[in-house]
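Work Package 4 report. The design task specified in the project plan requires that, given a folded chain encoded as structure tokens, an amino acid be chosen for each position. We show below one input record used in the internal validation round.
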């Protein structure tokens, strides 16, 4: 069936049903995040979600649903159920004392959530935001196995994948591999006061994914500060 032949879904009362846009946060809760870092991260995430909620209320094309994974030595769902951003009240993350920065298990949880049949066929491309203050410490092969599991799903492979590194020492080849696109840089927060600014950039990327007729190369240039293959960032809208 061609796109223009696809029936338009309507909500009760005649309104056009908005398309789901799933945002999944992968948040580092390792021991190194204790103190000012985790406080700043919680503040920044709450502020980002509030801004996305304002955007969500003001437009008609997409509805943002949020989930979150907290990872350290192990990974677990912090927000397990897709929750409309306008209804979400952020529950602060807590660091794990002496926790490591094992990312592979977090990737596997997200891969399971994005497996075929787990999200709506009409959903927009999901957005995955990885936030960390350290290098991956996974046992040999675990990072690769988790990332491969994520990329094996159509939704994971087609997702907009962004990463915020808290501190320049956190920027690594592992984060570039998660993003999977050389035209999209790691967003580096040099200090805790920069975290909110970097999450603002990420939220703009998420919100603008659903804009019809947008000049996506121009948006990539505006958001990431360079020209080049913007369609690699804002390519196909749907995951199928």
């Amino acid at each position: 069936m061609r796109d223009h032949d696809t029936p338009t879904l309507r909500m009760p009362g005649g309104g056009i049903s908005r398309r789901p846009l799933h945002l999944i946060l992968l948040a580092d809760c390792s021991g190194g995040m204790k103190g000012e870092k985790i406080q700043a991260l919680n503040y920044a995430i709450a502020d980002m979600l509030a801004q996305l909620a304002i955007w969500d209320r003001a437009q008609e094309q997409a509805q943002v649903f949020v989930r979150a994974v907290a990872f350290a030595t192990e990974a677990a769902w912090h927000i397990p159920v897709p929750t409309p951003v306008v209804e979400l009240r952020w529950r602060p993350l807590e660091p794990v004392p002496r926790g490591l920065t094992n990312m592979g298990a977090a990737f596997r949880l997200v891969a399971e959530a994005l497996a075929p049949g787990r999200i709506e066929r009409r959903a927009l491309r999901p957005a995955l935001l990885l936030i960390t203050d350290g290098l991956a410490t996974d046992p040999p092969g675990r990072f690769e196995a988790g990332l491969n599991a994520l990329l094996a799903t159509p939704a994971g492979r087609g997702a907009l994948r962004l990463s915020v590194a808290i501190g320049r020492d956190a920027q690594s080849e592992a984060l570039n591999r998660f993003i999977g696109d050389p035209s999209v840089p790691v967003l580096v927060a040099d200090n805790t006061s920069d975290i909110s600014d970097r999450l603002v950039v990420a939220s703009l990327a998420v919100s603008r994914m659903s804009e019809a007729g947008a000049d996506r190369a121009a948006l990539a240039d505006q958001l990431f500060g360079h020209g080049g293959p913007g369609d690699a960032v804002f390519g196909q809208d749907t995951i199928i």
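Residues 136 and 174 are 7 Å apart (CA to CA). Validation will be extended to a larger panel in the next phase.
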